[in-house]
Amino acid sequence: MKNSTAILLTSSFILLLQTLHGVNAGFVCIGSSFRTNSSYHKNRDSLFSTLSDKVTTNGGFYNASLDGVHVLAFCRRDYERQGCIDCVEKSIRQIKTSCSNLVDSFNCDSDDRDRVSCFVRTTNHSTYRLPEFGPATLDPSPLAIDTSTKNMTLFRQEWDAMVDRALEAATVDTSTAVLKYYGAVKAEFTEFPNVYMMMQCTPDITSDECKKCLQESVTYFKNQFWGRQGGGICRPSCVFRWDLDAFYGAFANVTRVSAPPRALVPRAQAMNDKHCRVVKGGGIIAIFVVPSFINLLVFIGLIKAYSRIRKSNNRINEQQGDSGGQSMLRFDFGMILIATEDFSSVNTIGQGGFGSVYKGILPGGQEVAVKRLKKGSGQGDIEFKNEVLLLTRLQHRNLVKLFGFCNEGDEQIIVYEFVPNSSLDNFIFDEEKRLLLTWNMRFRIIEGVARGLLYLHEDSQLRIIHRDLKASNVLLDADMNPKISDFGMARLFNMDQTRAVTRKVVGTLGYMAPEYVKNRRVSAKTDVYSFGVVLLEIITGRSNKNYFESLGLPAYAWKCWVAGEAASIIDHVLSRSSTTEIMRFIHIGLLCVQENVAKRPTMNLVLQWLASDTVVIPLPTAAGFTTHLPVELHGTDASNQAQGGAGTLSLNMLTVTELSPR
User: Fold this and answer.
1) Which residues participate in ATP binding (predicted)?
2) Where are the beta strands (DSSP E) in 407-505?
């Protein structure tokens, strides 16, 4: 009797804690009550009567209201139509049964196969476009991971890395799908064959709100249920689910990826931990030696396997623990073919000297940009390795994100985030699209590019010189925020290194600094010069190549500045904007393109000038510019590597790649 009472009290206490935290299993009923057959009751039932049909015809998400009653229904993106209908109707029945006369209810459907598949929310106030993190329902797995045979430190590191990948995928606003926030990841851990994870948010909230909701769910699970073999947390604005078994539908077409290589170090540590165990009895020596020997063999096997992986990846380093950068996936070529519809010409979104860029859609629904390098190109090999190596260790809001790569056979493919508004040159040099670029928008683009370069030069764990900054390598996201792209020609510096002399010139003629073209001297000031050219292009709305007859845009802008006519180069679209502020930006641009390298500012100083109209800015000196390559580079070697055409040099597309080790 005492034991029964204790169990009852314990259960009641747990239920009380869940209620206080706004968390329960399956459904939550809160708020005031309403009378049976009242207008609220009738209006709620009226909305319920068509809810399952409405949610499927509206892409899996539906919000409706009727005289003070608000109902919202949501189905997971990969759910089939009939399954969504059945799930919503089941949730409605649960609410009518368990929350029959309560105004505020939330039901998240659960079953053994698919713990988070749909939910229904009712309130007496609108929740549309308002992020709601509570009430929440939870459904942890009843099974626990056997911690006596599993290295939980290693498991947690791999699990956290998986969370980062799923979170990044789920918080990308695809803008084309109703259920736009979604990420499903399947990974192979060191001590588990497969681990599955899914995240999704309702489409009415922002990406930042989605990320916060999912992060809170992950944190809650780790704090309350760590050690379980999976579980689901469902909130009115997001759902989070993971398991050691595939739950229905979400992972039918998701390619498995390996766990991060950093797991090798903790595994070695786990071996040492096992060696320290003391076992009583006469078999102590055997119990100590045999596991040690087995672990040694396993460890040697892991080292060999890891070496084979590195060799097959053309020595591309996929480090996670040391880099502190983005998670990296190695994509299966078959998945790339599906995502791009066999590289359909309809999906082509860009052409470059080393290949084409295609829009792709991954099985989870996420849109990506797929860069396919030309087969058999030695230059492409160098660009491919360079770009993958660098971008895995860089992460900044003004740099394009690298999702992964594929190098099977002679195929070399890089997968980036999809940036819907293409590149800056498609806007700033187009007579109609340029009308959309207000001064505030151009200001934000200039500042964003400057922040991206500052990160590369000073704030990242590496010191990187981009060497090919130009308008076509500045991508614009859905909110017109800039992202620097194309790191195939970037040069890696030591942290204490300020400049170097290269064997060959790489970049695009017109954006390359004079000292770099003439003497092959490269430094952070090389990028500063390129930034100055892009800044002047943004202000004038004209491409630098349009001014080549008069020695280029920097020289032309300098000529107008000296004559006191700098205002004449301002884009006519900006006629109603503040001329004073735009003139200050021209001033900064001219300081960036000065012939004298020592007088050019750092990107840190540029950002200070951009942000303040009270800081005293020095007067610029003569601008430098080069319209042709040095004579020694005008040979067969240079011509064959030019990107503007077969055997000819191009004013705006020249790309000569340096072949020396970086």
Assistant:
1) 371
2) 413-417, 463-465, 474-476, 482-484, 491-493, 499-501
